[in-house]
Design goal:
Blueprint: H1 6-12, H2 17-27, E1 50-51, E2 58-59, H3 60-70
Antiparallel strand pairs: 1-2
């Protein structure tokens, strides 16, 4: 089951309120307020390797691709 596929099940169970309530209780992902999954990369949407220094909010791959355009220099 993928992250967005719980919505298909909600549509199928819309006519059965008791089963829908039980399904929502155990299977619908809860709203996150903290954690690394909350801030994805601005460009590609990845959540791993995230850099938020200087307010960049980019993953390391996108930072590497766009570093010169952003004004960063490689010193080594």
């Amino acid at each position: 089951m993928t992250a967005g596929s719980h919505t298909k099940m909600l549509n199928q169970l819309s006519g059965k309120p008791a089963k829908l309530k039980k399904y929502e209780k155990f299977n619908v992902p809860k709203k996150r307020t903290t954690g690394y999954n909350l801030k994805p990369c601005r460009l590609c949407g990845r959540i791993g390797g995230h850099m938020k220094i200087y307010g960049l909010e980019l993953c390391r791959q996108c930072f590497r691709d766009n570093a010169k355009r952003l004004g960063f220099k490689k010193y080594r």
